[in-house]
Amino acid sequence: MIVDAHVQFWKYTKGKDAWISNDRKALQEDYLPEQLTLTEKWNDITGLVAVQARNMEVETRFLVEIAQTHPIVKGVVGWVDLAAPDVKEKLQEFSRFPVIKGWRHSGENGSDDFLLNADFQRGVGELQAFNYTYDILVHNRQWSAAASLVSKFPQQKFVLDHCGNPDISHAGIDEWRFWISELAKYPNVCCKVSGLFTVAPWKRWSPGDFYPYLDVVFDAFGIDRLLFASDWPTILLSGMYVQWKSLVEKYMENFSAEQKEKVFGLNAVQFYGL
C-alpha cells in the first residue's frame, strides 16, 4: 500500500489562481484526477489525499466532489475560514462529509504572522472536537510562528507540509534545521516528505542535494511521524513524480520493510484516519 499524502487538483482560472505566476506557466492549465491515473498505476499508488490550493470554501466542495467520483481519493484537506466568528457552525456543516479529514490555509500571499492571529487560533481550537487535522504550510519567515502555534494546542494533530520549505536553492539549512528540531519536539506534529524539488534549483538538482535535508527530518521526526507525498502537480516544475518517489525509496533502501510501509502509507492512514 502506497498513499500519496499530498496532491492538488484545479481547473485553472487566471484571476483565482494568482499564486500560479508566469514563472510557473507549466501549472497554468487544468490538473484533474484523470491526468494522474497513469502515474498512479506506474508508481503503485493506492490512495491519495487531495489538499486545497485556493483559500475558498468552494475549493473544499470541489475536492469533495472529486473524492465522490474518484475512489482513489481517500481524504480531503480543505479550506474554511478559521478566523470566522461562525467557524464552529461551518465545521459542523462540513462534518457531513466524512472524506474531509482536515484543513489548511495557504499563507503564501498573506500576512507572515497569520498563524498568531487570535481569531485564527480560536478556529484551530475548534478542530479537535471534530477530529480534524491541520496542515501547516509555511516558509522561513513563518517557522517561528508555526512553532508557537503548535505549542498552544498539544492535543491537536498537525502536519508540516513540504518539510517546512527549506531554502535548498541557496544551501540554507542551519536555521531551518533549528526550527525543524523545535517543531519535532511536539509529538502531535508530523511531517510530509515532499516539496523539496521545487525549493531546489528547478531541474538542475542532483539526488545528493536532498540527502542532508532528508537526514534532518528523518532524525527529528522519526519513522512514525513522516508521510510520503508528491506535491503533484507542483512537482512538475522541477522534476517527475517517479523521480521523487524513487529518490525517497533509494534514501530508505537500508530501512526495514516495516519502516518503509509506515512512511509510504501507514502513517498517512493513521494521521488522517483514511
Write a brief structural summary:
The chain is of the alpha/beta class and 274 residues long.
Structural key phrases:
9 helices, alpha/beta, 274 residues, TIM Barrel, 8 strands, eight-stranded parallel β-sheet
Can you walk me through this structure?
This protein has one domain: Metal-dependent hydrolases (TIM Barrel, Alpha-Beta Barrel), CATH 3.20.20. Helices cover 34% and strands 13% of the residues. It contains nine helices and eight strands. The protein has an eight-stranded parallel beta sheet with strand order 1-2-3-4-5-6-7-8. The mean pLDDT is 94.
Q: Into which percent range does the helicity of residues fall?
A: 25-40%
How far apart lie the N and C ends? 13 Å
Q: From the coordinates shown, what is the CATH architecture?
A: Alpha-Beta Barrel
Element order: H for helix, E for strand: EHEHEHEHEHEHEHEHH
